[in-house]
Amino acid sequence: MVGAAEKSIVPNSTGGISERRNRRKRLQLSCGECRQKKLSCDRKLPCQRCMRSGWPEQCSFEAKTRPPPASNDQSSQQQARRNSEEIRDLQAEIVLLKGLLSKVQPQYEVENGADAFRTTDRAEPSQAVFLSETFKDDQGPADITKFELSDPRERSPHGYYSQHALLHFFREIPQLFPFIKENADEHLKPLGVHLKKEKPVRNDCKPSSPFQEKGILEGLLPCKDDADFLVSFYLDHFEQLHRIIHVPTFKREYGTFWAPGRARHPTMTALVLSMLSLSAFASVSLGETSTPSTYGAMPVQWTSACDEWLRQQSSKNRKLVHYQISCLTYLAKRMNMIRKKSWWKETGALMQNAITDGLHRDPSPTIDTPYMREMKRRIWAVIRELDLQNAFDFGLPTLLHNVDSNVSAPSNIDDDFDEASKELPISKPSNTYTSASYQFHSARSSELRLEVSRRLYSPGLSAALTYEHVLQYTHALTQEIHSLPPWANDEETTDTKPPSLCNLTYAFLQFQLQQCILTIHRPCLQRDDSKYWLSETVSYQISRDILLMNSKLAGLGVQRLTLLREDLLLASLSITRLTLLQSKSSSSIIMANSTSTVELLEQCLPLMEDKYLHCFYGEPWCVLTMYAATMLLKIHVGSETWQTAKAVCAQRFLDLHYRRIGRQQTTQHQDPANQIDVSINQHFPNTAYQSAPSAMSFPASEWMDSNYPDVSIIIGMDCFGLDMELDNTWETWGSTFQD
């Protein structure tokens, strides 16, 4: 018997033999024995009795992994007996748990004759809990019926395809996805056409030295004539929106970039490549020069090379040019539909770097020159606008919701100043158009749009958004739209600036305000309460205005620049949803204008087709979704049946698809990408200019500081200073970012 006294015979001091009673220490109870004796115990940890006794190795949780003590045969047998008892207890518990779990049935709903998991529009707290949290000490097995095991997809976080603002329409327009799917199954897949975007091949070649980096970047440059045209297109168009560089200074430096016998600095090369990747696609439609109709995959290679160059730079000495290249590279990705799932993360990372380097604080007049202060304000305005745009596109918060920034708005001035200016020109009136008018007016409404995004996507930082607040914000945003200067109708403005640029700037300022209005009214649509009728009217009018503005920009030849935003597809799907919500017998103005709505969508369809036709990595879903939306409206108004609409939609997409394939095959022989091999072990000469052989260090030039101790390793220096001493530039910009 365990714990019983035993007798032993030992010799005594007189030489005789005597008996001595030896009392053995009682073995402590293990966790299994605790359960058998109905004592409180947790199987996952040693019980309190075991812990107090200092024998946690006797706990059943560790008994299976520890070998039994080998003190003597009797203790080994006792330990083996306890182990077998523990195994039986565990097996009995497993059987009990299996029986309980078998009673819990997953919830299904039957849709279209097939079982489908029940999903919700928004993520709710999961009803499934771990069993260790389910069974409490005072809870019996019968209480398990209170809990349900939900679909794992409901417990997982929302991904890109369920979070983006555009993709919510597949849930808000129930007919949209079935129409596209049936169309693809019946008409596209039998012909071998699959709705899958072509993914660019990433270049994993990484330079191991500045000389290899220099060779890779220069090997990607096109011929000088094409580069000159693309750079000029960027300066004349994109710089009217996002003010990223100082145009006069850049033109002076670019003039020496192609000078024979002078080595190019990788910083300047990366800056030029980022501009080329942004303007290569948008410049095709103008036909102002003999530039090749497309560069194919070159924008992908250019952006990839710029990304790799940025990754190689140290974060300790970030200069102005780093942010300029980062902003240009991101805009090029939006223009060419490259890695769209990462856009929100990219602007968020860029925002983090800017906050780390203090760009969210107004530059000090005692440290920075007037030129540098204005350039910092412009860069911060660009980063702020891009991140706020992604907040509305992706339906996700931005760091701006928690950042206290006191940066002044950029001045409404042209680049009539330089690095040596003692003071900036006086900001022009708001109704006067300048190359910085977009940033100037965008900053005026940024606080209002930021407050709307905070109420929508960061509810923990503000009160809930009620319908009264929706109406108040609608009024404020509408007032901002009406306060925009009508530059396009101003004869004095159109004499100095092309009407297309004035209309483009006005359109972008209008789009970002109209996007806010559509966003705050979107949850109010399709509600039973009659007080929300105003949301339908406002959303319909705003969507129609966006489509009309896109059609106007297409007539001016600058519609491709609107690909920096997603307003065309957003407005098309919004007006489709609003029309489908109306009954066919409705007398509402939305249903009364349904025929004109279809005609308006037909006018905008070529704009979406152009995007898919000319973009090398075009997105087939965008154009096919717009086809489907147009056909659904025709079905709703009774001009098409479901089957005929599918056939017409499929035929139109197939014609566009085969045109795109034929166009790519025709331009493959002209594509500069076929003659460029990106290899880190070779240096490829340019077709129009062969650079000087690399030396041990880059020779000092007019735009580099020859007094700097080691010019060859200065990759991140500010390359804006052809006509001045760069010592001052290093002091003013570097003093802000010193560790």
From TrEMBL:
<keyword id="KW-0479">Metal-binding</keyword>
<keyword id="KW-0539">Nucleus</keyword>
<dbReference type="Pfam" id="PF00172">
    <property type="entry name" value="Zn_clus"/>
</dbReference>
<dbReference type="GO" id="GO:0000978">
    <property type="term" value="F:RNA polymerase II cis-regulatory region sequence-specific DNA binding"/>
</dbReference>
<keyword id="KW-0805">Transcription regulation</keyword>
<dbReference type="GO" id="GO:0005634">
    <property type="term" value="C:nucleus"/>
</dbReference>
<dbReference type="GO" id="GO:0001228">
    <property type="term" value="F:DNA-binding transcription activator activity, RNA polymerase II-specific"/>
</dbReference>
<keyword id="KW-0862">Zinc</keyword>
<protein>
    <submittedName>
        <fullName>Transcription factor</fullName>
    </submittedName>
</protein>
<keyword id="KW-0238">DNA-binding</keyword>
<feature type="domain" description="Zn(2)-C6 fungal-type">
    <location>
        <begin position="30"/>
        <end position="61"/>
    </location>
</feature>
<dbReference type="InterPro" id="IPR007219">
    <property type="entry name" value="XnlR_reg_dom"/>
</dbReference>
<feature type="region of interest" description="Disordered">
    <location>
        <begin position="1"/>
        <end position="22"/>
    </location>
</feature>
<dbReference type="Pfam" id="PF04082">
    <property type="entry name" value="Fungal_trans"/>
</dbReference>
<dbReference type="GO" id="GO:0006351">
    <property type="term" value="P:DNA-templated transcription"/>
</dbReference>
<dbReference type="InterPro" id="IPR001138">
    <property type="entry name" value="Zn2Cys6_DnaBD"/>
</dbReference>
<keyword id="KW-0804">Transcription</keyword>
<feature type="region of interest" description="Disordered">
    <location>
        <begin position="61"/>
        <end position="85"/>
    </location>
</feature>
<feature type="compositionally biased region" description="Polar residues">
    <location>
        <begin position="71"/>
        <end position="81"/>
    </location>
</feature>
<dbReference type="InterPro" id="IPR036864">
    <property type="entry name" value="Zn2-C6_fun-type_DNA-bd_sf"/>
</dbReference>
<dbReference type="GO" id="GO:0008270">
    <property type="term" value="F:zinc ion binding"/>
</dbReference>
<dbReference type="InterPro" id="IPR051430">
    <property type="entry name" value="Fungal_TF_Env_Response"/>
</dbReference>
